[in-house]
């Protein structure tokens, strides 16, 4: 029901509803591991470190992890 050429997209790695409208130009996309692989997503960037269960479930390998700057880049295996 909402169409906007420009949007802020927040991606979460989890099994919740696939799409959540947070505002007129802001939405959250929830991706399962299977969805991420289907979309050929190779990397995941986050300002917070994923918990160990998520790292295992999504087969995440740290490419760049900086706890001071709170920047984390993971390769999805």
| Gyration radius over CA | 14 Å
Provide a count of the helices.
2
Strand content: 35-45%
Structural class comes to alpha+beta
Please outline the major beta sheet: 3 strands, mixed
Strand order of the largest sheet: 1-3-2
Q: What this model shows, in words?
A:
A hairpin with a 2-residue loop joins strand 2 and strand 3. The strands form 2 sheets. This protein has a 3-stranded mixed beta sheet with strand order 1-3-2. The longest helix has 6 residues, at 33-38. The termini are far apart. It is built from 2 helices and 6 strands. The protein has 77 residues and is an alpha+beta fold. It has helices at residues 33-38, 52-57; strands at 8-13, 19-23, 26-31, 43-46, 60-66, 71-76.
Q: In summary, what is this structure?
A:
This protein has 77 residues and is an alpha+beta fold. The chain contains two helices and six strands, in the order E-E-E-H-E-H-E-E. The protein is globular.
What is the secondary structure topology, with strand pairs?
Blueprint: E1 8-13, E2 19-23, E3 26-31, H1 33-38, E4 43-46, H2 52-57, E5 60-66, E6 71-76
Parallel strand pairs: 1-3
Antiparallel strand pairs: 2-3, 4-6, 5-6
